[in-house]
Amino acid sequence: MPGRIFITGSGVVSAIGTGRAETLASLREGRSGIAPVRYLETADRGFLLGEVRQTDGQLKERLGLKADAVISRTSLLGIVALQEALSEAGLGRDACAAMPLISGTTVGGMDQSERYYREFLSPEHQHDGYIAIHDCGASTDAIADYFGGFTFATTLSTACSSAANAVILGANLIRAGRAERVAVGGSESLSDFHLHGFDSLMIVDRQLCRPFDRTRAGLNLGEGAAFLILESEEAALQRGASPLAVLSGYGNACDAFHQTASSENGEGPFRAMRQALTMAGIPASAVSYVNAHGTGTPNNDASESEAIRRVFGQAYPPVSSTKGFTGHTTSASGSIEAVFCLLAMRYGFLPANLNWREPDPACIVPVTELRTGVRLDHVLCNAFGFGGNDSSLLFSRFA
Amino acid sequence: MERKVYIKALSRISLRHPDPDYTGMFPVMEARRMSQLMKRALAVSKQALALSDVTVPDAIVTGTGLGCIANTEQFLRPLLGLSDAPLRPTHFMQSTHNTISSLIAIKLGCHGYNATYSQGGISFESALLDAFLQLRLRMVDTALVGAFEEMTPDYAAMLEKTGWSGVRTDDDRLSETAAAMLLTASPDGALCELADIRLGAEAASTTMSCPAPTGHLTRADYVPLYGDNFCVSALGACDAVERVAAGDCDNLLLENDFHGKSRSSILFRSLCGR
Fold first, then answer.
1. CATH number, domain A5-238, options 3.90.1150.10, 3.40.1390.10, 3.40.47.10, 3.40.630.30
2. Would an 8 Å CB–CB cutoff place A119 in contact with chain B?
3. pLDDT tens digits for A343-376?
4. How close is the nearest chain B Cα to the Cα of A29, in Å?
5. Which of A284, A338, B71, B236 has the fewest other C-beta atoms within 10 Å?
6. Could you tell me the sign of the dihedral formed by the alpha carbons of B116, B117, B118, B123, in that order?
7. Intervals of CATH 3.40.47.10 along chain A
8. What is the CATH number assigned to the segment(s) A247-396?
9. Would the ipTM clear 0.90, i.e. be above it?
10. Residue-wise pLDDT tens digits, A158-185
């Protein structure tokens, strides 16, 4: 196996901030971004959401795009995050033209399709441009186009583990010698379709989500995007880039249990975490922190807790879910929370698992208050999706 | 040393490869909840596995441009007040793009790697690239790669509005795809070698391991046979594999230039005289 895989850039946007600085401040101050519906066009205003506090118009203006540009919110958020990641890595358009872009999404252009669908099916042509940007791949293409294009762009769509799986493909491209560096991550905007979809499954809580709490009753949906720049050790050193961390392991496994429910023994999550540790060649006891998928649904949190116990035993490392900050950012959660992990590692803190009050015998006991002054050497970041598409990423301190 | 990758078996349903008889293939209650695309996906996956003597693959990787668009529409219409039907959770549950790949895993009891790609006209190639890399990197020994696409009257009408070239002509009418291939690291009983696969700008580059292929297939060859959809290149790939396996050519380059939006190239190499 060739050298290590370095992370040399990261960018993020979510309900708790645009960019790393705002995000870091919110995480350290315990400031949640979940609030009553403000931006999403939905008839039912009774939901709590983790919305990015900018309209499409404001995002376009920020990015220098025309107000009538035909582009999905998914793409807009993705561009904001990727721009920051490229900037931190010190990469420009030339570098983009020489590397692949791998993103994860499920919503794609649905936020626009649901708005114009009636017109799509009528003889009217005013918003037909949005038809071609409905599919997931088109939302990634629009991100790529903004930066002048990449060698190729592709899109993972494995529901809530999409962005984590984009990281895995990117790493495999580097390991196979197919690329020196890759931009990987995910982007997801809120849509009425997905809000009502999750609600129809009766897993949306109208109160604040309470991951791992005994009274937890579901998730709050969120949105956002995050990208990482992965580079081979050789390529990064050659251009004098400084690594933020090392992607030392990753795992992808399928729970193969049910389309939307998780197995009681957490087989998929267990395998994903174990694979990541095995690849890195470190014992479970070396892990300093686990950023859990922890959506706040009764089923996910119990299943994930069981998997964590199977991997780590009763002496599991500090665990927290940051869904209480951002809501569940679904396809983008894997990369958004990866950026949280990188920030935690760099600034030596453990983000709190907000809204936890009562222990549940079926669940792990999370970190409930911010802890500072901690040294994190190895951090595991979980992202699990419908269909039992479970992935886990392991980040290690650069030494 | 990187390993070579082989294609052991394939199975497909297309305009020229009719649906099998699904009677008795699935439990009645289950069949009622399954869309046509899900039935097709399971049928071709099971056949590709049976032809390969593989019970459970190490990885399942799927490509689909639109995912389960019929279920998506069935959930969207009542939400937008275009239908009086109630919002049914099953439609949402089975609308996500990874529904098919996970259904195959559930049916096979496969806990291995599982992923779904949705990248327009190179969704299948993205899935194939993922599996190819993992076989080369020795992360898996077998991988089931699928390409599944359905078309609805509404979506066809929408595509027509956008001026998808040739939608109206009979030669490249909109169609559907269900195709599965079993990739292995072993040449035993394989149909051919999957020598290389490149996406996007790399597809046109001379970095392909064979600059002068003896066989060539493009959209102009397979779209008139199978119609057009986001995953039709998988049907072209099936033809390519069969031609190489039959000894028609030493190596064959399959090129996919999808409506000027995305490109890919795949190189298949014959095992004859190996």
1. 3.40.47.10
2. no
3. 999 999 999 999 999 999 999 999 999 999 999 9
4. 36
5. A284
6. negative
7. 5-238, 247-396
8. 3.40.47.10
9. yes
10. 999 999 999 999 999 999 999 999 999 9
